[in-house]
Design a protein that fits this description.
The chain is mainly alpha-helical. Helix content is 92%, strand content 0%. It has one domain. The protein has four helices and no strands. It is rod-shaped, with a radius of gyration of 31 Å.
Length: 144
């Protein structure tokens, strides 16, 4: 059926969008953590060596988040120095719009296919019923 092909095509278009959105969400989340905890990390680095350990212990969660975000971003940025947060957010918004439209089309086609399948089953059922009525009369005629 033609609608199945369209439906599958839309589903195939949604897969890379979902993958990219997941990646962008991870990028954005790490950038936000990086900026959120950057000041605490700076304060940690400014501490005198004797006080650094105590400061680290009192801010372990924040510093751990910062360090993890920094490692992630270093791996993602491939040596680039500026973080393209605005570009990532713009791309995410654009992809979310595309996903929403494709999803709407997908479910509209799904409902259409469901209706067509129901009609096909009903027609098939009626045809089987009609054939069932005709066959006994033919058998009767042949027996006489």
């Amino acid at each position: 059926m033609f609608d199945y092909g369209k439906q599958r095509g839309i589903a195939e278009k949604l897969k890379p969008i979902d993958r990219r959105l997941k990646t962008l969400d991870e990028h954005i989340s790490n950038v936000e953590k990086y900026f959120q905890y950057r000041d605490i990390h700076r304060k940690y680095k400014q501490q005198k060596p004797k006080k650094q350990e105590a400061f680290y212990e009192s801010h372990r969660m924040e510093l751990t988040h910062y360090e993890a975000a920094e490692r992630y971003l270093n791996a993602v940025m491939n040596g680039k120095t500026s973080i393209p947060l605005k570009a990532w957010k713009a791309e995410r918004d654009k992809l979310n719009g595309e996903k929403k439209e494709l999803t709407r089309q997908y479910y509209a086609l799904k409902d259409e296919v469901k209706e067509v399948e129901q009609i096909r089953r009903n027609v098939y059922s009626i045809l089987m019923e009609e054939n069932g009525r005709e066959q006994p009369t033919r058998k009767h005629e042949h027996e006489r």
